[in-house]
Amino acid sequence: MAKDKILSAKLKQQEFKTKSTQLKTQKIAQLLEPQFQQSVEIDDERPLLKISNFKEYLPEENVQNIINLKLKQGPYKLSVTPQTTYLAGESGHIAAFNWRHKQLECEFDVKEKCYDIISIAQRNFAVAQKSSIYIYDPKGVEVHKIRECKQATKLEYLPYHFLLAALNQNGQLTYQDITQGKIISTYRTTPSSLCLKQNNNNAILGIGDQMGVVRMYAPNTGTSLTSMLCHKGGVMSMTFSRDGNHLITTGSEGTIKVWDLRTQKLQSQVAVNATNLALSDKGILAAGRGTDVVMWKNCLIGDLKTPYLRYKASSMICDIDFIKHEDYLAMSTFDSYEQTVVPESGEPFFDTYEQPELQNKKQRLETNVRQLVEKLPPESISLQSHRIGTIDRTSKMIIEKEQKRQIEEQASKKIKKQKKKMRGRNKIGKREKLKELERDQKQQVKWQEMLSDALRVKRAEKEKKKFETKLLDRLEQMSSKEFIRVVS
Amino acid sequence: MGKLNKEQRLEKQLAKKVEKQDAYQQVKLQETPEDDFNVANLIQTLEDQGQQIDSVKTQYLRVHEKARIVQEPETQAERDLQERKVAATVMKQDIKKWLPIVKKNRESERIDFTKQRNVQISKISDTSNALLNNHLGVKLQNAMEEVEKVEQKQELNGQSNQQKSNLQFYNDLKMKKISSIKSKIYKQIKKKKGNKEKLKLMAQLTPAERRKEIEKLRLSRAKERITLRHSTKNKYVSQLLRFGGDKKSLKQQQSFLNNLKHQLLAKAQLNELEDGEFDEENFREQAISQLEQELLDIERREKEKQNNFGFLDKQKKQDLQQSKSIAQKLLTMLKSGNDDAIQLDESENQEQNSDDNYEPNENGDKDKQKTNVENNEFNGRANFVNETKQLTETQKKKIDAKTSLSNYLNQEPEKQQQQNKIEKQLTSQEEKKQLIEGLNIKNIKQKYEKQVNQKLTKQDLKKLQSDPDELLQQNLANFNLVLDEDENENAFIDEKIKDMEEELPPEPANTKGWGSWAGFGIKEKKPLTQEQILQNKIKKIREVQKKRQDAKLDNVIISEKRDAKFAKYLVPKLPSEFANSQQFDQLHTLPLGPEWNSLTSHSALTQPQIVTKAGVVINPVRIPQQVNKLI
């Protein structure tokens, strides 16, 4: 404890305040908890429950929202909000409809290959097409065309930073600010990427690799913050929990693994060959494998042995997602869009900064303005985001080095003024002669470097030749030896 | 049908246009004489009356001359021109449809005759009614789909051939694209897949077979490296490579080879087409003519000069007689007309030949036969296996396109193999002679037996261990698939080590004389060897590894780089009040906003220390007396 009496008193007062406020918040949370939460009980005899078994006992509102749309234009990608679903077929069929009121918002055909779709701020949506990324209105009008990131295959949207992240086919990641239209950072990640997902708590992007590695990225640094070897095969897909403490991945070798991100260790695993994953806010895990969807209830605690529910789709599943704050699971297949009930999956409470679904037009406009005012800067994304406002713990040596480097960079950027020289020396001819000399010196340095490189290559070639001749001699000896053995 | 319609349409249009022109002119001609009120009639009437109107007459004549040109019918040449123009405009409209198709076909390498696919576009707006009336709509929809499925199945049977051809065309395009990929990463991935399959095959083989294959690989690679990459770049060699021995350019040679390929392909395609219509009589005539030519050749060869060596002549006679007998047998069979008997006889003949180690190459060299007789163990069986693959003339007629190409491509390497075998035999013969003549075989045997029974010293053991080739063979023999699966793990560990190496400070340049005492009588320091440098590096890396966050986690890399941009959100120095950073951080554990706390606790947390009620007078600040004295 501190020696100062004033400080010690201040700290004690703080402790008292924290305890009292924590107690109050706990009490209020107990009051707000829903008393009648519907759930499905599982018998021991049949651990796999089918949704068709309890479909009759559901209320009418839920039954009406069980949707099965038949579409014929290629495998579909989806993104779901509490009101609308956005669909993008591979051959260019794009549609948005309100699933709550069964109302079509827009539908059109871009005669181009589409890779991914995602909903962004103010009910707009972005589509990753073959030529570039397009942003459309809720009525399907083309608003923007982002030419900078070409051949993007995966999209992700960070709602509190207003950033659209796009991953390229060659592994190039770009962050673009939607409000200003400025590209914040682009850098090269792993070339053989398979999936892209954001940590909702942290706004850090995770990229799954073909080599079985998951890497975390932020816009500040070009290199990966952490990288974790998860599977022997490639990482097919992954999800983060709502807390940001857990990571769930599937590998191509046929396992689902649950990782604790606080300790970076494996928690539990199951041998299931899944291709798509989705995690609800309450912690129900859905895994798509072929035409089946299998769900587990308490996967974050470690109960992965007994599945909770099972659903059978009409064809192969391409994309899967839970609807936020609702008890529905949306999935897109090769030729259909399907939506089913999953009891006890949605979180009933809204976050304070989250935009609730039922709002007036006036309220929505106000929230839009407020969100823009409270926009978080992209530099605040890091693994240490909980340490904002605390003391920097890095050593003084590193900080001094950084400051020096900054000063040097600033000095190099400054334009040097030419000195005023004595009379007669400031002639135009002499000044240009000096310039030519500088140019020649720079060229000389370049040529010398080139020469040294060429010499080094020649030497290496000579050494290789020697080594290979030796090897050939030895092989000849070996062959002759064997012959002698045969004769003897 | 379309062409006929167009021609008909053209004729009709032309006829209409011509009719219109004629009708217009007819109307004009008809109007003029019918008009009662005419200028010419007026003038005539005035002249008859006896009035002077010469000036009016001249003006009228001028105008009349000009009008005459308009009223006259057009010449036939002009009419033809107009007709041609009309015809050209009509034709252009028809050609416009075909221009893009012709252009596409001209540019593409092969022409696509398939029809365009009828893409069935389904929309949500079509099924929106089903959404509203869910129960009824879904039932209706399902019923309709079942009807559609039955209809589609009937269509599919007709479309299956089209789909196959479409798929083939699509696959060809795909393979063309894949072949043009130049990225290194793609090649690396492809190489890895290939290596995996090879290793799986290797694991199934026995260790003896494995060694042989490894030796083959090593020889081929060594030769490749020397021949391709590090070849000599003399003027003589470069000219040889470019123009060859006969001073042909590379392009000429390539074109010659390509021509051969195309000819073979064309032949094979013709044969494929003719398979259905196989003319037995033609084929028989050709075969008989060929056999007769061979018999003539054999007779000519018998009349040639005989060598001085008796045993060679005997062999030659035997060979020629055998070949003669076979040809005569075949001739009799063909003339009698039993096709089934031919194939049986051929197989019998081949078996007989194999027993006698006989080569049925009529034009074969005699030297080969000599070597075969001397070294029955090495070459006799191998040659027989190759012979069976060579197709007889009767079977050549039925060759497909693929087999003929593959045979052509495999001809050159086979020739090289044969040449290599002959060379090997020669070398082996020489060595054998040396052994027999110069040394006693018994002595050599005893030497080897001694070496085997001798107890190995430490130096010999070291020599054995130092041989990298043997070690490699042992390692590859004991290769397990488990190692193959850990490829990801090895790559990850390499990445981790590379990350740790970047943290190490840069080593000073190892220049001579610097950092050591100089003078008389001081021993010179030897520069460090590469092994020592490596060991030092490993020590440093291990020290770094202990300090890292991921020291105990093998499957995790946590980067230790400082995020400079994030540093502006942190407090750079500890304020003067606090002794530790923990004390400072403790004040900021609790968030103050109403979003995280209830309203009452929020008001309590943000309450100011001094509370003043409204209406209370606040006096201005005064300097205390103790300070005032000092001033």
What key attributes describe this structure?
heterodimer; A: 488 residues; alpha+beta; 5-stranded mixed β-sheet; 4-stranded antiparallel β-sheet; 5 helices; globular; B: 631 residues; mainly alpha; 71% helix; flat
What does this structure look like?
The complex is a heterodimer of chains A (488) and B (631). Chain A has five helices and 29 strands. By secondary structure, chain A is α+β, with helices and mostly antiparallel strands. The N and C termini of chain A lie far apart (90 Å). The model of chain A has no long low-confidence stretch (mean pLDDT 87). Chain B is mainly α and 631 residues long. Chain B is built from 26 helices and one strand. Chain B has helices at residues 2-34, 39-49, 54-71, 76-107, 128-132, 134-179, 184-204, 207-229, 235-243, 250-274, 280-302, 310-336, 339-356, 366-374, 376-389, 393-396, 401-438, 441-453, 458-466, 468-477, 481-485, 487-503, 530-547, 581-587, 599-605, 625-630; one strand spanning 556-558. At the A-B interface, helix 1, strand 2, strand 5, strand 6 and strand 18 of A face helix 5, helix 6, helix 8, helix 17 and helix 18 of B. Strand 18 of chain A pairs antiparallel with strand 1 of chain B. Chain B: It is found in: Nucleus, Nucleolus. Chain B: Keywords: Coiled coil, Nucleus, Phosphoprotein.
Q: Can I get a quick summary?
A:
Chain A: This is BING4 C-terminal domain-containing protein. Chain A is of the alpha+beta class and 488 residues long.
